[in-house]
Description:
Elements: H1 2-7, H2 19-33, H3 37-50, H4 55-67, H5 71-84, H6 89-101, H7 105-118, H8 124-135, H9 139-152, H10 157-169, H11 173-179
Helix pairs in contact: 2-3, 3-4, 4-5, 4-6, 5-6, 6-7, 6-8, 7-8, 8-9, 8-10, 9-10, 10-11
Amino acid sequence: MALAQLWGVRPAWPQAESPAAQALAAQARSLLAEGRTEEAIARYREAVGLAPGEALLWIELGEAQRTAGEMPEAIAAFGKGLELSPNYELAQLGLAECYRQLGNFDEARALLRGAAEAHPKSPAPLAALGRIHLELQKHDEAEAPLLAALRLDPQNTAARVFLASVHMARAENDVALEEL
């Protein structure tokens, strides 16, 4: 999943209720890796039809839909994933990313703050929150969550790049280079 790779979150791949749903999800992942997003979405839809109680299948469907630009559908799928498994970090991150892409920064920040509280050992929601503040050119507000993310995981590439961007925006180019 692209979102999992971006934020460094390792999704759990539980066995779906149905072996057929698991097989469809595996096909969908392969199709996504080949760039065949629409076909992957169709497989994920089949999979959630067979195993509608599996949160991860909904989250994977949401990520594929987000990638395809199908934001309303992605929001619904991530929402279903959260309904089935409240505080599932990938669902929170995915839903927040949809809202960020739509420019609904308040909703995205609220989700990320909740994710940071629910997952205090994860740098991902903090890095995502810092990214949003950076995009809004709120550099002072961006710095704190990015530094917190790096305290949790000094190797977190996303947080490090966003923090370097904060320093560059402040014309602190030497500090930015040190971050990279």
